């Protein structure tokens, strides 16, 4: 019986979001840092390859099943970029790494762009062991448009500028439980919970 899964991330926001979604499985997610797992290299250009690399690394160092998330913002006008480099987006424009600077840089880069379409994409990969030949893969996608200024105070990352037409609001303006149920990570987590239930438990 699996009761602990290592989360290949040290991001508190991610841990809290995923822990809430995994609660029905009766599984505890443990942040990799708590187990002394070093950060994995993420040399790849796709979310799925990076998530797999992170999950295998966490499983290898912890001896436990592992789950990793690689997520990012894909902007139509930029050919899908920043994509896998989303976390470092601000650094390309002379800012320090960080959510708030990422939003600032994005708004500056898009100031004269009329096509505001974008999607937040989350790919979750879970492995039972480092060389698991059948990793579980779940993908969630939240399409929307980039606003011209920040709106709302919830969430993290690009939530304040990600306008979701179905709600007429940005992710940061939605109550956390509504956002979690509809976000890219929420969709991927829902699929992953189903996959773990079917294949592992």
UniProtKB/TrEMBL annotation:
UniProt xrefs under InterPro entries: dITP/XTP_pyrophosphatase, ITPase-like_fam, RdgB/HAM1
Positions annotated to bind Mg(2+): 41, 70
UniProt-listed Gene3D superfamilies: 3.90.950.10
Cofactor(s) needed for function: Mg(2+)
GO biological process per UniProt: nucleotide metabolic process; purine nucleoside triphosphate catabolic process
Top EC class, one word: hydrolase
Keyword Signal found: no
Swiss-Prot/TrEMBL keywords: Hydrolase, Magnesium, Metal-binding, Nucleotide metabolism, Nucleotide-binding
Pfam family, one: Ham1p_like
Catalysis performed (reactions): ITP + H2O = IMP + diphosphate + H(+); XTP + H2O = XMP + diphosphate + H(+); dITP + H2O = dIMP + diphosphate + H(+)
Superkingdom, taxonomy of origin: Bacteria
GO CC entries: cytosol
Entry annotation: catalytic residues: 70
Ligand binding (substrate): 9-14, 71, 156-159, 179, 184-185
EC number: 3.6.1.66
Bound cofactor: record note: Binds 1 Mg(2+) ion per subunit.
Transmembrane spans: none
UniProt-recorded Gene Ontology molecular function terms: dITP diphosphatase activity; ITP diphosphatase activity; metal ion binding; nucleotide binding; ribonucleoside triphosphate phosphatase activity; XTP diphosphatase activity
Protein role: Pyrophosphatase that catalyzes the hydrolysis of nucleoside triphosphates to their monophosphate derivatives, with a high preference for the non-canonical purine nucleotides XTP (xanthosine triphosphate), dITP (deoxyinosine triphosphate) and ITP. Seems to function as a house-cleaning enzyme that removes non-canonical purine nucleotides from the nucleotide pool, thus preventing their incorporation into DNA/RNA and avoiding chromosomal lesions.
Stated family: Belongs to the HAM1 NTPase family.
NCBIfam families noted in UniProt: RdgB/HAM1 family non-canonical purine NTP pyrophosphatase
Subunit-structure text: Homodimer.
HAMAP family, A to Z: Non_canon_purine_NTPase
Protein name: dITP/XTP pyrophosphatase
Gene: rdgB
């Amino acid at each position: 019986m699996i009761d602990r899964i290592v989360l290949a991330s040290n991001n508190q926001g991610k841990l809290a979001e995923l822990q809430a979604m995994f609660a029905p499985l009766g599984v505890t997610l443990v942040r990799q840092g708590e187990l002394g797992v070093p950060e994995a290299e993420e040399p790849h250009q796709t979310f799925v390859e990076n998530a797999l690399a992170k999950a295998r690394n966490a499983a290898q160092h912890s001896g436990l099943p592992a789950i990793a998330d690689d997520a990012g913002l894909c902007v139509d006008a930029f050919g899908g970029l920043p994509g896998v480099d989303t976390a470092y987006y601000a650094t390309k424009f002379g800012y320090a790494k960080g959510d708030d600077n990422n939003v600032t840089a994005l708004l500056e880069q898009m100031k004269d762009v009329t096509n505001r379409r974008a999607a937040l994409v989350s790919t979750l990969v879970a492995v039972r062991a480092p060389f698991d030949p059948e990793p579980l893969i779940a993908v969630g996608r939240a399409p929307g448009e980039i606003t011209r200024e920040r709106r709302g105070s919830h969430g993290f990352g690009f939530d304040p500028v990600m306008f979701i037409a179905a709600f007429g609001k940005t992710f940061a303006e939605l109550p956390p439980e509504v956002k979690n149920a509809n976000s890219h990570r929420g969709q991927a987590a829902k699929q992953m919970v189903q996959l773990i239930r079917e294949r592992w438990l």
